[in-house]
Design brief:
The chain is of the alpha/beta class. It has nine helices and eleven strands. 38% of the residues lie in helices and 17% in strands. The structure holds NADP nicotinamide-adenine-dinucleotide phosphate.
């Protein structure tokens, strides 16, 4: 526990929303940084700022010792990390905890084709390096795809009359709540550098994930395997985004899907 508020960037997002109550349960005061204005009244201090421009970030880090950096988008996470570490260094933060993705160091993003499909991995890797080179005490956890994102992906694909699925792509989805619990444990411990990955209990072909969703919704659609070009896609097919030796997550995709289909909200 820490006497000063813990800053959670991305505290309004899928992961961050689960990190915040876990920190509160551990007795921490929590401050959330968001680009949008939020009313108080939930025991959380809300601060408005934008990590892409740096606006409001100095005020957000002021007086915090521990920062859990969950803010992220598909592009530009290295820029967000840079603005955050500059402000955190000025304010004297003593622990920066970062959530990255399994494969950040193994998916080679060299060509324009690689970048178009896998630029996210390169940005996460660059952000990891910003954190590690910041001079701040840090901890970085890499996670595989969250069940929630997997569901979003298969739900979008399932809207198509014929579903194109990249051949050979596999995922090892992990429960977002389990990642949040691990992040909070890390935030409340001493800075540990790059820690062992967190990955879901099973590996699935993307086509199998799509099929399981269709089946749960009682739908039938043809699935069309499509090839994906480039070095990054090759690494992906070889399993660069998987961590079978770190299958420490408990909740399976099937359990998650059953709960979601029963209560679609
Ligand atoms: N989803 C996955 O499967 C997965 C897997 C491994 C790692 N991760 C990493 O986990 C983190 C959280 O992912 P998520 O799925 O929870 O994302 P999400 O649901 O899309 O939420 C993104 C969060 O980032 C904040 N944000 C985005 N741009 C910002 C900016 N310029 N300034 C300040 N805040 C900004 C958003 O806050 P506002 O909109 O309120 O400003 C929101 O709270 C990301 O770093 C992601 O790369 C995700």
């Amino acid at each position: 526990m820490t006497a000063s508020p813990v800053l959670v960037t991305g505290g309004t997002g899928t992961l961050g929303r689960l990190v915040v109550p876990r920190l509160q349960d551990a007795g921490c005061d929590v401050r959330v940084l968001s680009r949008h204005r939020h009313d108080g009244g939930d025991g959380i201090e809300h601060v408005t700022g934008d990590l892409s421009t740096g606006e409001g970030v100095d005020a957000a880090v002021q007086g915090t010792e521990v920062i859990v950096h969950c803010a992220g988008t598909t592009k530009g996470d290295e820029v967000k990390a840079r603005h955050l570490v500059r402000a955190a260094s000025r304010s004297g933060a003593r622990h920066l905890v970062y959530i990255s993705v399994v494969g950040a160091d193994r998916v080679p993003v060299a060509s324009a084709v690689d970048r178009a499909m896998f630029g996210y991995f390169a940005a996460k890797r660059a952000a990891e390096q910003v954190v590690a080179g910041s001079g701040l005490p840090w901890t970085t956890l890499r996670a595989t795809q969250f069940h929630d994102l997997t569901l979003l992906t298969v739900r979008q694909l399932a809207k198509l009359p014929v579903i194109p699925v990249p051949s050979g792509w596999r995922f090892q989805p992990v429960d977002t709540g389990e990642v949040a619990t691990r992040l909070v444990d890390l935030a409340l411990a001493s800075p540990a550098g790059l820690v062992p990955d967190i990955a879901g209990p099973r590996v699935y072909e993307l086509s199998a994930l799509v099929r399981s969703y269709l089946q749960a919704r009682g739908r039938h659609r043809p699935i069309l395997p499509v090839p994906t070009p480039g070095r990054a896609a090759r690494a992906f097919r070889a399993g660069a985004n998987l961590a079978p030796d770190r299958a420490v997550g408990h909740r399976t995709w099937e359990e998650f899907l059953t709960a979601k289909v029963r209560s679609p909200a």
